[in-house]
From TrEMBL:
NCBIfam families to which the protein is assigned, alphabetical: aroE (TIGR00507)
Binding sites annotated in the UniProt record for shikimate: 14-16, 61, 86, 102, 219, 247
Keywords: Amino-acid biosynthesis, Aromatic amino acid biosynthesis, NADP, Oxidoreductase
Protein family per UniProt: Belongs to the shikimate dehydrogenase family.
Catalytic activity: shikimate + NADP(+) = 3-dehydroshikimate + NADPH + H(+)
One of the GO biological process terms: amino acid biosynthetic process
Protein's pathway: Metabolic intermediate biosynthesis; chorismate biosynthesis; chorismate from D-erythrose 4-phosphate and phosphoenolpyruvate: step 4/7
Species name: Caulobacter zeae
PANTHER family: BIFUNCTIONAL 3-DEHYDROQUINATE DEHYDRATASE_SHIKIMATE DEHYDROGENASE, CHLOROPLASTIC, SHIKIMATE DEHYDROGENASE
Quinate/shikimate 5-dehydrogenase/glutamyl-tRNA reductase domain span: 118-192
UniProt-recorded name of the protein: Shikimate dehydrogenase (NADP(+))
C-alpha cells in the first residue's frame, strides 16, 4: 500500500485525511492517508525517521511549516520564498524535497471563484503578517503581482516579510490602509480575525475600486463577516475553503502518482465536516 499523511499539532481538526481518503477510495488505489501529531519539541526527529522509508510523503500544517522547510535537503522556489513548506516528499535515496502547495491553492481558488482577476493588473493588499500572509505574498509575487502591500497591527512583522521578499513588497501600518485599498486589485485577509464567527479585520472595503477581488483565508465560518462586507460593497469574493481544497490536489499527485479522480465532491465532503 502507498502511505502518506498529514502532521500538525493539534491534528484532530485537519480535513486532509477526509479528502485524500475519499479520493483514494474513489480511485480504487491501495493506499492510506493518515493524521499524525508529533510532539512539538520532536518534529525534526519525527520527520527524519521517514527518510527513504515507508511513506511517500507528508503534508505539514500548523505549527510545523517553517521547520518542515528547514528539514529538507532541497526545496522549490515557492517554498523557499514562502519560508514554509506544507508538503514533504521522501525520496528513495533518503533525501527530502520540500514544496508549498498553499500558493497554487490560493491562485487556483481565485481562478475558480473570481475568473476575471488579472494578477498583473493592480497591487495586492494582504492583511496580517504571519506565515499565511508570507505564503500568499510569495505566491502572488511569483505569479506576477506588480506590488504587494502587507498591512499589520505589528508593523515590524510586516517589515520582516518585506525584507525577505524584495522591493515589490512594502510593509504598512493600519493608518496607511485606506490609501492602499484605493488602488488594490485584490485584498486578502490573512489574519486570524473572523475565525469562529467574530468580526474580520477593520478595513473599509468600499474604498476599493469596483471589481477588486476580496478573499478570506479564514474558512470557519465559510461566509465570514469580512466576506459579507465585501459582498455588501459589491465586490467579487473568494472563500478560504476553496484554497484548502485546491492545495490538496498537487499533494495527492505527489503522493499517489495520479490526479485525484473526478466525481468526488470534496467541497460537499468538507462542508459536511465544517
Ligand atoms: P498564521 O501563521 O496562520 O499566519 P499568525 O502567525 O498567528 O498565524 O498570524 C496571525 C495574524 O493575525 C498576525 O498578523 C496578527 O497580528 P500581529 O502580528 O500584530 O499579532 C493578526 N491578528 C491576530 N489577532 C489580531 C487582532 N486582534 N487585531 C489585529 N491583528 C490580529
Amino acid at each position: 500500500a502507498l502511505v502518506a499523511g498529514v502532521c500538525g499539532q493539534p491534528i484532530v481538526h485537519s480535513m486532509s485525511p477526509l479528502l485524500h481518503n475519499a479520493w483514494l477510495a474513489a480511485a480504487g488505489i491501495d493506499g492510506a492517508y493518515v493524521p499524525m501529531g508529533p510532539p512539538e519539541d520532536r518534529f525534526e526527529v519525527f520527520v527524519n525517521g521517514f527518510r527513504g522509508g515507508v511513506i511517500r510523503g507528508l503534508n505539514v500544517t500548523i505549527p510545523f511549516k517553517e521547520r518542515a522547510l528547514a528539514c529538507a535537503d532541497e526545496a522549490s522556489d515557492l517554498a523557499r520564498l514562502a519560508g514554509a513548506a506544507n508538503l514533504l516528499r521522501f525520496r528513495e535515496d533518503g533525501t527530502i524535497f520540500a514544496d508549498n502547495t498553499d500558493g497554487p491553492g490560493l491562485l487556483g481558488a481565485i481562478a475558480a471563484q473570481a475568473p476575471a482577476f488579472d494578477v498583473s493588473a493592480a497591487p495586492v493588499v494582504i492583511l496580517g503578517a504571519g506565515g499565511a500572509a508570507r505564503g500568499a505574498a510569495a505566491a502572488l509575487l511569483l505569479a506576477g503581482a506588480p506590488k504587494v502591500g502587507i498591512v499589520n497591527r505589528t508593523v515590524a512583522k510586516a517589515q520582516a516579510i518585506a525584507d525577505a521578499l524584495g522591493d515589490k513588497v512594502i510593509a504598512a501600518g493600519e493608518a496607511e490602509l485606506p490609501a492602499l485599498l484605493a488602488d488594490a486589485g485584490l485584498v486578502i485577509n490573512a489574519t486570524s480575525l473572523g475565525l469562529g464567527g467574530g468580526d474580520g479585520p477593520p478595513a473599509d472595503l468600499a474604498l476599493t475600486p469596483p471589481g477588486c477581488v476580496v478573499m478570506d483565508m479564514v474558512y470557519k465560518p465559510l461566509r465570514t463577516e469580512f466576506l459579507q462586507r465585501a459582498q455588501a460593497a459589491g465586490r467579487p469574493t473568494v472563500d478560504g475553503l476553496e484554497m484548502l481544497l485546491l492545495q490538496a490536489v498537487p499533494s495527492f499527485e505527489a503522493f499517489f502518482g495520479q490526479a485525484p479522480p473526478a466525481g468526488v465532491d470534496v467541497r460537499a465532503v468538507a462542508l459536511a465536516h465544517l
